[in-house]
Structure prediction request, 76 residues.
Amino acid sequence: MTKEQKNAAYALALYALLAVVFRFSSGGQGWGTALLLALVATPLALWMGWLRRRLNEQAVEWGRRRARPWPEERRR
Prediction:
């Protein structure tokens, strides 16, 4: 699978999961509303994941976060 196909499959799975969650949540939205809410929430969730990954990469680059745990943390 190429990277684009993997990203598309991940986005589609997230969309389906969000639609089901919105449909069967305590509010009990209808399918149309649940699909529309999932359509709005999916890009937001994907963007938030991308932003977190980017900030972590920058923190490692700037030395604010270690890629490996400290030696004393490895012993736990």
